[in-house]
Give the backbone structure.
Amino acid sequence: MAQLDNRVEHHSPKPAGSSAQVETTDTVEMKTPEKVCGMGHRMKRKEDGRFLQGKGRFIDDIKLPGMLHMCIVRSPYAHAKILNIDTTAALAMKGVVAVITGKDLKAAGNLHYMPTLMSDTQPVLPIDKVLYYAQEVCAVIATDRYIAADAREKVVVDYEPLQAVVDPHKALEDKIIVREDKEKKTNHVWHWSAGNAAATDAVFAKAAHVVKEDIYLPRIHVCSIETCGMVANYDKVREHMQLYMTSQAPHAHRTVFALVSGLPEHKIQVIAPDIGGGFGGKVPVYPGYVVCAVASLVIGKPVKWIEDRSENLQADSFARDYHIKAELAADANGKLTGLRVRTLADCGITDAAANPSKFPAGLYSICTGSYQLEAADVQVDGVYTHKPPGGVAYRCSFRVTEAVHLIERMVDIMAHDLKQDPAEFRLKNFIRPDQFPYKSPTGWEYDSGNYEGALRKAMAMIDYPALKKEQLEKRAKGQLMGIGISSFTEVVGAGPAADYDILGIKMFDSAEIRIHPTGKAIARLGTKSQGQGHETTYAQIIAEELGLPASDIQIEEGDTDTAPYGLGTYASRSTPTSGAAAAMAARKIRAKAKKIAAYLLEVGEQDLEWNIDRFQVKGSPDQKKTIQEIAFAAYTNHPPDIEAGLEATDYYNPPNLTFPFGSYICVVDIDTGTGAVKVRRFVAVDDCGKIINPMIVEGQIEGGLTMGLAPALFEEIVYDENGQNLTGTMADYLLPTAVESPKWEIGKTITPSPHHPFGAKGIGESPTVGAPPAIANAVVDALWHLGVRHLDIPLTPQKVWKALRDHGVNN
Amino acid sequence: MSQHKIQLTVNGEAVEREVEARTLLVHFIRETLELTGTHIGCDTTSCGACTVMLNGKPTKSCTVFAVQAHQARIETVESLAQGGKLHPLQQGFWEKHGLQCGFCTPGMLMSAKSLLEKNPKPSEAEIREGISGNICRCTGYNKIVEAIQYAAEKLQEAQ
């Protein structure tokens, strides 16, 4: 792999209309009747019946005849030589079929290494050395899950432990080289920059106020309640590999498997069944998947591999782990002018980030946020350490959470330093609606926005002035109450093919719609739901465009043999890409339907107009053909000059990304005795553009907020100095329950995207991105008068208690 | 590994099987009985995805041996809908969008059922406490609370 030295961020020019001034409203539009249930309806989810009755089909529910079970032997060291792997005792056990080691994979065609999504390399199974704690060392395949687990204990691996380098700052000294297998003997992976360093220096030179802060965003883990797994089913006679897989991107994974294994791509079928939560953790290809597939290929029987929770928490890809140094400048009037950011990105042992190929730090340079700045200079260095690969998103679009956290913390520190109200300070510095089309100092063309509208709405919902008054009264009594704001801008929906690809495959996405003769339909898409409700949302989009009842439209995703190619579901891209493709494919169908209607009504196409579910003759609405009538005619009485059938496919390449935004206000109370933080209120105003199903959007927001609360207060993957993971169970890695989660209060504004076919922007991740700084800002706000300027998340009772004691609070 | 014959009632049906002493109840339910609605999320009694009713009490079946269920009465998510009609809790979860990926849902439903049996009119705080042994990563819990409130009302009306 070529080292990605000195990468400079580039943004291709966007077509006109990619960024525009757009009117904001707050009412959900609904054009279709209840019967059709197009966009805007609170349609109950079509997928729920099976989940409610225990009839979902998740990976571990799949059972094939003769299926074997695989267990993985993992390293107890973060860095060690492998002296010997003795599999004799394991192989001697009744029911054990095989033990697969790195040497076996090498012999099978150099399968002991695989490429990562960022074109780095990653050991599948190591031969000489282990490089992280819980690394896959070898795999046992047996007739039964319990026997495989027993046999795992019988594999004897001799290690010679070596010193591990865990801290990325120390890793940069290059005293211990993590990847000795590489040509360049350095732990420095890449340097990346965006913005304009000289212009930023000039802005800082004349700044009246500068604030500086070090911010660490620790490693966290998506910890979906379903772990990862695979059932690999190789048919030696048909030379066909069927892979049931917990995959957020089944088509891309099929291509990766074809490239790595040399199996022809048409002989590989990836099927992502129901998925029990993804959040980015089911985007990477993990070694376990590859070994499971190889095991089935070699043995010729189906092989199942299901991670246990500890394996999942210790070895699957992590998010964040950004060590940030930020500086923010303002002029004498308190107008923000410049941002300078330096960051160390801890990659672990390989750059396996799930980012677009040309963006090693993801979309991090969106970190100028919702504010007008004259200049910005953002630089990131990727570093190897003896830790598992990082770089999945944790319910966010490629590092946007890191970007939002840093700017929202810095803006808050500046406001406090200047003794200005953080809300008023934001209102003064926001990009105004009339400044669109807007181009940011790091090159982004925000599609549309109304940041002031969202913040003012949140302030009204929570009665901001009353809170400020209450805070003063409480402070006088020695009680610690904090108010925190976050006014974030997201960037989702990757993406324009000119700039965005994964392993060279452009990040378009697809939809294929077929209308059956009786007016029912099936649509297949290149994305893959993991709980987002695609079976309902996509049906509503097509219902809106074609007037077919959403309940008459079957939605399918996840089977690469049947669905059109797509890059999958992550980074809030499904509605911006496949949702757009569904609308475009439906419009192609409508265009053909118009020809058929004209033929049937014996009028010219120009004489027809579309009305919800029918074409009618202009001025004579009784002369009409419904979409169902047209569908029947498409197979029974179609015009002689056009082909039969009523179907269309669309591969949608968005002209720009979409930029959802919102403003959150959080109220916390801090227990001065224990340091415990209680989120008393949390108001979230989100703007995701056009809303398709308000109920699903609310669900995405509330769920996203809880996944924002989690890293703000509880979650952190902790390593000791030897690289041992100290948080490998759910008893150590704390997920919020219903008790810790506040009753979320949500509101909305609607500022459609100017370039999306129906104005949608995406919502799944905004709240996870926006919530942590609102909570952190609230906690620091409660402590600011004591002299606390910054605390890193998670804001655990211990951390807050220590801050209290360090600043003279002893009760 | 010693084999044991166990007899129990699962979703109202008498069941008799030979199991290994170490077989976990959740594996017995999922693999031997092929009732895959009960899920495994954490293996350590933390997440609640495997919650079933054992003699009327919500129990995390990932840390109970099948042999411990000898002579017991087990109810799983598959028992909730009766005669093609959803249980009020299932209706509530559907109506109020109390599920997203659906993986935690079966366990959540069983804990909620137990809660409403003990406390037919729970406050919001009591509902949150009652499901605090079940982790949902998708919904943020607001809508699960609303779903349980909906079911509580329906069950009250039915009485």
The first strand of chain A starts at residue 4 and ends at 8. The mean pLDDT of chain A is 97. Chain A is about 25% helix and 25% strand. Chain A touches chain B through 57 residues (CB under 8 Å).
